[in-house]
């Protein structure tokens, strides 16, 4: 078999698909936000191996600056970062109409009860603690992307994306 035929299928079996503006099926887009280059690359490689299109940001400010041009389907977000931490970034995402419903998976070493509560209060969809299991990360990101895709109200959809 060819490498293409062996490539993982990032799309769920339930028929929910992401489509580009021309109607072609496309890979889910994930923006990985972490100040550690090693962690960014680890998350990126695991998602790319499963068929995701991955973009990188080194902190919350970089994330917010890149969002408009990327239109991700989900974000993985660390908490402790320079310039703008994960909680402040998440608050800004939830405060903007265009990103209010964007799925966010916190991937962080901050695992105190207060951190989990704050994440829930800000509307995070999932919370993974470092060190994380790469397979669990992929499952979690896939789940938030596709569970959100079928439930997005029209006003919360990202520009240029069709959810079927």
Provide a descriptive summary of the structure in words.
This protein is an alpha/beta fold. The chain has one domain (30-149): Response regulator (Rossmann fold), CATH 3.40.50.2300. It contains 6 helices and 7 strands. It has helices at residues 3-6, 37-49, 60-70, 86-95, 113-122, 134-149, and strands at 18-19, 29-33, 53-57, 74-77, 104-108, 126-129, 162-163. The strands form 2 sheets. Strands 3-2-4-5-6 form a 5-stranded parallel beta sheet, with helices on both faces. Strands 1-7 form a two-stranded antiparallel sheet. Mean pLDDT is 82; it is low at 1-8 and 149-164.
The first-to-last residue Cα distance is: 30 Å
- CATH hierarchy class name: Alpha Beta
The structural class is: alpha/beta
- DSSP strand tally: 7
For this structure, the quaternary state is single chain
- How many structural domains can be distinguished in the coordinates? 1
Assign the CATH topology. Rossmann fold
| CATH homologous superfamily heading | Response regulator
The CATH architecture classification is 3-Layer(aba) Sandwich
| 3D shape | globular
Helix and strand run: HEEHEHEHEHEHE
Quick one: biggest sheet? 5 strands, parallel
Give the strand content. Answer: 15-25%
How are the strands ordered across the major sheet? 3-2-4-5-6
Overall pLDDT confidence: 82
- In DSSP terms (H or I, runs of 4 or more residues), the helix count works out at 6
